[in-house]
Amino acid sequence: MARSWFLLLPFGLIVLLGSVAQAAVVEHTFNVGNLSISLCNKTARIITAVNGQLPGPTIEAREGDTVVVHLINTSPYNMTIHWHGIFQRGTPWADGPDMVTQCPVQPGANYTYRFNVIGQEGTLWWHAHISFLRATVYGALILRPRGGAKGYPFPKPHGEKTVILAEWWNDNIYDLERKAFREASTLRPADAYTINGKPGDSYNCSDANQTYKFQVRHNEKYLLRIINAALNTPLFFKVANHSFTVVGADASYTTPYETDVVVIAPGQTVDALMVASATVGRYYMAVSPYDSANLPNPTFSETNGTAVVEYVGYTGDEQPQLPPRTEYNDTDTAFRFLSNLTALVLPGKPTVPLSIDTRMFVTVGLGVSDCQPEQLQCNRSTTHFSASMNNASFVLPSTVSMLQAHYRNKSAGVYTRDFPDRPPVIFDYTSNVSDNGTMQYTTKSTKVKTLCYNETVEMVLQNTHLIAKESHPMHLHGFNFFVLAQGFGNYNETTATPQFNLVNPQERNTIAVPTGGWAVIRFVANNPGMWFMHCHFDAHLSIGLAMVFEVKDGPTEEASVPPPPEDLPHC
Ligand SMILES: *[C@@H]1O[C@H](CO)[C@@H](O)[C@H](O)[C@H]1NC(C)=O
Ligand SMILES: *[C@@H]1O[C@H](CO)[C@@H](O)[C@H](O)[C@H]1NC(C)=O
Ligand SMILES: *[C@@H]1O[C@H](CO)[C@@H](O)[C@H](O)[C@H]1NC(C)=O
Ligand SMILES: *[C@@H]1O[C@H](CO)[C@@H](O)[C@H](O)[C@H]1NC(C)=O
Ligand SMILES: *[C@@H]1O[C@H](CO)[C@@H](O)[C@H](O)[C@H]1NC(C)=O
Ligand SMILES: *[C@@H]1O[C@H](CO)[C@@H](O)[C@H](O)[C@H]1NC(C)=O
Ligand SMILES: *[C@@H]1O[C@H](CO)[C@@H](O)[C@H](O)[C@H]1NC(C)=O
Ligand SMILES: *[C@@H]1O[C@H](CO)[C@@H](O)[C@H](O)[C@H]1NC(C)=O
Ligand SMILES: *[C@@H]1O[C@H](CO)[C@@H](O)[C@H](O)[C@H]1NC(C)=O
Ligand SMILES: *[C@@H]1O[C@H](CO)[C@@H](O)[C@H](O)[C@H]1NC(C)=O
Ligand SMILES: *[C@@H]1O[C@H](CO)[C@@H](O)[C@H](O)[C@H]1NC(C)=O
Ligand SMILES: *[C@@H]1O[C@H](CO)[C@@H](O)[C@H](O)[C@H]1NC(C)=O
Ligand SMILES: [Cu+2]
């Protein structure tokens, strides 16, 4: 336990809570395999799922616990699991992204993920981090305070409800992805949005089993743990006749924020209190898409997913009420919600770094590139989509994981240390053409940004408008970051700096960079390893909207990448 004690020290939070609760080991076996399911279709089909469940099992732990998950892959596909939002300090081999921190667990093989939950409380989740299989391989990861629910920085709710939002395709998602890759085409929109694995009855699914039901008691207060597990779609979330008090996001407590709509991008979580204060009855909970591209003919599914909130004691059979619809292109509502959250400042919690060692300005967006050799059905006479950060379009290595190459000090042929701090060309990022095309044409590479242990980083994320402007949900592995400011248009340091929130900026692991706009984030590189940063739209990640931070070892053994676990999969 020597390592754990060292890791505890920087976190005054734990000292503050001063609980005598024993740290426990939370152990699960995840059998990833075929599940035959009939969802919104009388004909059953086979999906990939954990322990035959959709969503997969919920992991519940307390701050300070150790989580151990034995992954047994009986599916036909290569598999890895990512523990989204967990810092993995001291356990970088357990992070999970395919070919970044590990080779995949091949069909018939197994691997044990082991990590400690240190200094984190709130709602996180886990999901497959290989191909598009997270469409059906996902679940909640709930972190309670050491002393349990009485340790919340808000009055203990009467109950808690996990609300996992996702997208559902009627076809095999792996096959859809391979097809899109071979043809260099885009994935078609989902057939349904789901709440806790069920689409609800706005989709011609007459079967009552297709609607998830939440039971509540009149006047009781519930903590909703909302997770957006959708592959490609930010969502508006509402419950008819009810409003929310947001108390957390991405497992960081927030200043209580009152709202009747929650806006949540893929990869994000929101903890919100909801009082069952309406008339005893039945109400729809509904999710509908936020299409930040605001295209005249939206390419996404315009339907919405529903669940039912039913009051105990209600005996009627009226059709529940729907909440008022949020327009798919309502960027004002999205920005109001996403930009207004602030952190709940608690003694002992890390605060925003004020001195910066490394400043990066990173453009994020779409472009075009040549067909790759493996894209056999790619039409070579037409250009096709690519995505990039600072015009570098990321591809995964194929022979060894980046963390293995880093650990063995053998990066040659696996990655290069030249991820740029600036884009190659400065132009009007709100324009849909770059001055000479340089920012539109991208080439594939595996570039990392190397950081010294403990370096502080400020990154301006600037969305571009090339091909399309969109709100890209940028997710960083291994760290939370502080969001100092965000806005629309081109980032202007002179006007943005005075807006920086250095007092109580929201802390997140995924930032929905405003569409056609920018966001400024800061983090401390106090976690040695290889940490993926990428758009949490799988449709963009797969075409290169990613980079990796290589964080060097610190001065002590505890601040160094440990040897890999014995069962780490080989390629
Ligand atoms: C799982 O389903 C696939 C079809 O999607 C099938 O080819 C395979 O044999 C099944 N595997 C098992 C173990 O049933
Ligand atoms: C339902 O499943 C059948 C058999 O797989 C398929 O032919 C049909 O298109 C599906 N219906 C929908 C609405 O996806
Ligand atoms: C996990 O894999 C190892 C090595 O192949 C094997 O010996 C072991 O039986 C497997 N365990 C399970 C539970 O499948
Ligand atoms: C439901 O089915 C009807 C008739 O088959 C069709 O017109 C309608 O578009 C369907 N609605 C949805 C949301 O799929
Ligand atoms: C609905 O679910 C229940 C319980 O799982 C099951 O007994 C019943 O057969 C299902 N109904 C249909 C139409 O699938
Ligand atoms: C959900 O979709 C239906 C149409 O299928 C629409 O009538 C309703 O307004 C939508 N509700 C929300 C909350 O978006
Ligand atoms: C949203 O789209 C509708 C048409 O689909 C359009 O009338 C409206 O102006 C758009 N709103 C914004 C804010 O662009
Ligand atoms: C939230 O942000 C918007 C700007 O987008 C601002 O107008 C509004 O007053 C802020 N406050 C609240 C409580 O929404
Ligand atoms: C585009 O402009 C940049 C400078 O603005 C220059 O470095 C680059 O070579 C130009 N590229 C092409 C293809 O003209
Ligand atoms: C890393 O930063 C922390 C907080 O500023 C400091 O306490 C620690 O001594 C630093 N460690 C190293 C090796 O610089
Ligand atoms: C940034 O804002 C300042 C103050 O409004 C203005 O003078 C300057 O021209 C702007 N810079 C750019 C590059 O637009
Ligand atoms: C599965 O992983 C192995 C090891 O990395 C790799 O050789 C193989 O090509 C992968 N299979 C697929 C279908 O991607
Ligand atoms: Cu994106």
UniProtKB/TrEMBL annotation:
A Gene Ontology biological process term: lignin catabolic process
Main location: secreted
GO MF entries: copper ion binding; hydroquinone:oxygen oxidoreductase activity
Signal peptide: 1-23
Protein location: Secreted, Extracellular space, Apoplast
EC number: 1.10.3.2
Cofactors: Cu cation
Family matches, as CDD domains: CuRO_1_LCC_plant, CuRO_2_LCC_plant, CuRO_3_LCC_plant
Stretches of the chain forming a coiled coil according to its record: none
Note on cofactor: Binds 4 Cu cations per monomer.
Keywords noted in UniProt: Apoplast, Copper, Lignin degradation, Metal-binding, Oxidoreductase, Repeat, Secreted, Signal
Catalysed reaction, written as an equation: 4 hydroquinone + O2 = 4 benzosemiquinone + 2 H2O
Enzyme class: oxidoreductase
Pfam families, per database record: Cu-oxidase, Cu-oxidase_2, Cu-oxidase_3
GO cellular component labels: apoplast
Segments forming domain Plastocyanin-like: 37-146, 161-312, 418-553
Superkingdom per UniProt: Eukaryota
Family: Belongs to the multicopper oxidase family.
Task of the protein: Lignin degradation and detoxification of lignin-derived products.
Protein name per its UniProtKB record: Laccase
